[in-house]
TrEMBL record:
It comes from the Eukaryota. Keywords: Cell cycle, Cell division, Coiled coil, GTP-binding, Nucleotide-binding. Transmembrane segments: none annotated. GO terms for molecular function: GTP binding. One of its GO terms (biological process) is mitotic cytokinesis. Residues 21-304 form the Septin-type G domain. Belongs to the TRAFAC class TrmE-Era-EngA-EngB-Septin-like GTPase superfamily. Septin GTPase family. One of its GO terms (cellular component) is septin complex. This is Cell division control protein 3.
Amino acid sequence: LNGYVGFSNYPNQQHRRSIKRGFNFTMMVVGESGLGKTTLINTLFESKVYPASDSAGDGSPRGTGAAAAVVPPAGVDITSVSADIVESGVKLRLSVVDAPGFGDAINNDEAWRPILENIESRFDAYLAQENRVNRSKISDNRVNALLYFIKPTGHGLRAIDIEFMKNLHTRVNLVPIIARADTLAPREVELFKAKVLADINYHGIQIFKPVSDQFDDPETVADNRAIAAKIPFAVVGSDRFVDRADGAKVRGRSYPWGVIEVENEDHNDFVALRQMLLRTHTEELRDETDVALYESYRTQKLLALGH
Ligand code: GDP
């Protein structure tokens, strides 16, 4: 457990039980087709999460690499894939919910709605279990983080991005991602990040940010600050290994002027994103989902029902 930061405030018994059983951690990825969602998720899992064939196991066409030409069905078709991974000795049942096709339609009015409904239906399922007499086996499929892929236009957020985030931010931890960051020059990435952040602030959109409190040690405070400074994470994904100048084979993308390495912190923010999601802030994202987002949904729901 060394180095697993998020556990300090977790009640002991629950903590031990969770370690034995492992945790559920559910992520949702949303964004237009072709922005690299599948590629990034595969890299996050280190191995292929989506089967190499063009089937996700549930009959829906999914693309990886060459199969990416498969056109997803019109509209938003939500599918989920899970795998067990081990991070710092802790078993994590990582589920990724994919909503392919978001923003692909000609008319994208209310494209956010089916995604909001999916997130809320997971809250409803949890609520129904909480209300049962025997609550020992609650399965928790609530979405702990939503990775929202922003197109690297260089021009800030588009109307569809703003609409989406404004409608979702009270229900899920939003993690904005600048997709395909290698298509912008480093200087453009910095400018684009500033524009995206300014838009997020201007529209009063809440996004997930690591924050420190008075109990954090200086190292944690510094880590939090370093991660927060990278938001929105500008990432590069690749399902290929390429030859670096020194001959090493690295996951990356090859250009005439050199190689962009996926797992090099100087080249893009993939490592910081992975650290935050699966190591340093896993617990915080789960807590925020349970204590703030779910709780406020539950309160609103019960009030509406007249309880
Ligand atoms: P999805 O539709 O969002 O799931 O996108 P995919 O992961 O299927 O990727 C679509 C295409 O973009 C594929 O040909 C990928 O190889 C490519 N791709 C994925 N990530 C990146 C990236 O970071 N940069 C660039 N230039 N291409 C990428």
